[in-house]
Structures are given as C-alpha cells and as structure tokens.
Amino acid sequence: MDKQGRKKLLTGSYLGMALAMFLIVYAISFPLDEGVSHGLSITGTLLYIFTFAIGAGPVTGIIIPELSGARTRSKVMGFSFTVHWCVVYMQFSGGTVFPGACEEVRRWSRLAGFGGVSFLSALFAYNFIVEMKGRSLEEIEMSLSPAAPGKRE
C-alpha cells in the first residue's frame, strides 16, 4: 500500500470490480456459446475477488483510521466498522435470497447495479480520497484540518 498509494489502489480496485460485474452481465445476458458464457462468468468472478483483495478490502481498513483525527479515531473506527459489518451481513442475506429473487428480477440488472456502484465508488475514490503515501498520521491530520494552509492532495 505504501509503494502504490491508497488512492491508486482503491480507484483501480473499484474499476476492476465494476469491469468484473459488467463482464458477468455480458456473459449471462447475450446469447453466447454455453462454454464461453461459463468461462466469462468464472473469469469475472475471479477478477472481482482479485481486485477486491488488492484494494477495496484491505485499504478500507487502513484508510479509515488514517483519515480520522487522533481524538476521535476510536469512535470513528467503531462506527465505521459497525456499519461495515452491517453491510456485510446485508450482502450475505441478499446472497442467500438471491436465487429466489432472480425469478422476480433479472440477474443481469442486479449485477449491473453492483457494477455501477463500484464504478461510482471509483469516481469517489479518485476525486475525494486524500493520498497518504509516505506521510505520517500527524502530517495527514495537519493537512486535513481546516486551519491548515495549502492544497489537499
């Protein structure tokens, strides 16, 4: 993370996750040979797992404490990870209900929605995440404080 930078890893990870979802959508929504369709679906799934593992998974756990001030760090981390695990639980619940829900809603539309959210997350990370490569927690806190002069990077 320190060599590549958190912003670059997050942006690349979310773009990769979006590409993976759109690849799976393409595989299941267009009439292809069954073997090609299965191969594209497996490739998309593996790409999603890989790109999540290099960015969105680990960087999120590192970036939350780095972006919060020393006095509020414990409260921010407690709240953030509580929300994170609630979202994980909702995703798990949705995954267990997903096969039944596919009868009502087309599979590709739900996966395209996940891809769209990943793409929007990449735009957010690119535009709003502060790069912290090679900086101490104190330097980051100083650059994020409203009284600090200069541009946020």
UniProtKB/TrEMBL annotation:
GO terms for cellular component: membrane. GO terms for molecular function: carbohydrate:proton symporter activity. Its main location: membrane. Residues 1-133 form the Major facilitator superfamily (MFS) profile domain. The keyword Membrane applies. It holds the Pfam family Sugar_tr. It is found in: Membrane. InterPro entries: MFS_dom (IPR020846), MFS_sugar_transport-like (IPR005828), MFS_Sugar_Transporters (IPR050360), MFS_trans_sf (IPR036259). It is a multi-pass membrane protein. The chain crosses the membrane at residues 12-30, 42-64, 76-92, 112-130. The keyword rRNA-binding does not apply. Keywords: Membrane, Transmembrane, Transmembrane helix. Belongs to the major facilitator superfamily. Sugar transporter (TC 2.A.1.1) family. This is Major facilitator superfamily (MFS) profile domain-containing protein. It comes from Oryza nivara. The lineage of its organism: Eukaryota, Viridiplantae, Streptophyta, Embryophyta, Tracheophyta.
